[in-house]
Amino acid sequence: MCDVWWADPAWASPALLDLLDERERERHARFRFEADRNRYAVAHALARLVCAREAGCAPDEVAFSLHCRGCARKPGGRSEPHGKPRPDGPAHGLEISLSHSGDRVALALTRGVAVGTDVERVSAERDIEGIIEYALTGAERAALESLPPEAHVNGFFGYWARKEALLKATGDGLSAGLSSISVNGPHEPAELHAWNAPEPPEHAWLTDLDAGPDYRAALAVLAPGPLTVVPRDAAPLLLGR
Length: 241
What we know:
Blueprint: E1 2-7, H1 14-17, H2 22-30, H3 34-55, E2 63-67, H4 69-73, E3 84-88, E4 94-101, E5 104-111, E6 115-121, H5 132-135, H6 138-145, H7 152-170, E7 181-183, E8 192-195, E9 205-209, E10 215-221, E11 229-233, H8 235-238
Parallel strand pairs: 1-11
Antiparallel strand pairs: 1-5, 2-3, 4-5, 6-10, 7-8, 9-10
Helix pairs in contact: 2-3
């Protein structure tokens, strides 16, 4: 089973900052825009609250270590801790993935199986033409072009969300290259076709998530699947702080 918690960055408050550790508060302070600070605060406070809930401990007992699989393969990479967060302390053994875009914050949580999630606000203002070749395979570009023009932007972000969810599940992130992954058409049920990488996962299950109008979202777990996905409202956890 996988829980997917949904939150709104408008729920940010000074009380949530008290849940963050020193490293997280420093990162929060570096964001230039308030909207980015709010998304970060809500996402990382939610991660600590959800992990504490699952582990049966206080939020301040939950810690996170960051792991970048790309840097692990190539020693001498970035010195600043970065990468996929893994719960430590009483919450060790849980797996989480965070994503936020626009007014959506998502947290996916599983036990003992790697998970990745991504949510993208569909925006015609973003220059997708400049990144299509980076993100899509030749077959995917052809499939996108076959759609009606008004469906291009939504279709592109459907591809992006699915691929980023898979790369977040492995811990590679975007540095591994979105075009290394091939998925089916954005208006078909999500399915992984191929993964062109030195060490692709043995199993990967992919599904779309309903993030509401004007958003595309996806969930990936490194298991044969399918898993039961349970959507949860984070308001009771966050607004009572």
